[in-house]
Amino acid sequence: MMSSPVTPDFATPPVVELVLGAQFSPLTKLTAGHFGLFWQELGGEWAEPGDGTPIEDQFELFDRPKWDRLGGVELRLAPVRLPGRFTVGHRGGDRLLQLQATRFHFNWRRRDGFYPSYRKLIAEFEAMFERFAAFAAARGLGKVLVNQWELTYIDEFRQGEYWATPADWSTFLPGLFGSPRPADGLVLEHRAAEWSYEIPPNRGRLHVAAQPGRSLDGRHPALLLQMTARGPVGKNGATTLRAGLDCGHDAAVGTFLRVTSDDVQNRWGNKS
After folding, report:
1. Residue range 197-224: average pLDDT?
2. Which pLDDT score is estimated for 62?
3. What predicted TM-score, i.e. pTM, was given to this entire model?
4. DSSP-derived secondary structure letter, 164
5. Residues 67-77: tens digit of each pLDDT
6. 95 closest CA partner among 121, 60, 131
7. Residue 267 neighbours by CB under 8 Å, 6+ apart
8. Distance (Å, rounded) from C-alpha 237 to C-alpha 138?
């Protein structure tokens, strides 16, 4: 029996975006016209179409250490894939679908401070993805064969609300940032860091990045904490897409709870 995912219930969590995604074998018959047909099937609530360049496929490999692939410039010469990436936003402004020949992503973006919970959003994602898979089969595009699951959380810590200078980041993220000890008279201006963790045994990886940026509304300087988990589906990976996403969710949320301070968690109001 699959265990329930880790789901702390905070009244005011700092999460501003959650992206749930599936990567699959290329649907070689997919055209821009199919994007329009699928959008039509979604109904009038999805009313903000757009397009973009395709997101590059990602695969978490475990045949050699991760650092073996660092330290050099990698140039890839590949033809531009058409059609590109189709996006369509919900009229409520808090949900976005992204579709291309190898990917299906569902984004939730915070509006009015409300986070509907992972359980609710994963159910919405599964319903939408099943709808797309049925559409692909009905239109003769082939079976959607998932090869990778992917989940991303983005949390926002605004300057003035959580910190005054980057030296303060260790007060609410002690599991990521130690207290810097520069020479006398120096003032820390900037910090940024990345970490990667294996989800053993070879089930996937969790990539953590913390860097300064802007708040979701673009008005305030903020520290942005991004956690992306991904891993294979099928041979040597998760048995199902849902199992993989739950695994990634547990890794991301469990890590988040360990790297944030008790004081800041109390500030968010743990209702669970």
Report:
1. 94
2. 83
3. 0.90
4. S
5. 555 444 444 44
6. 121
7. 12
8. 28
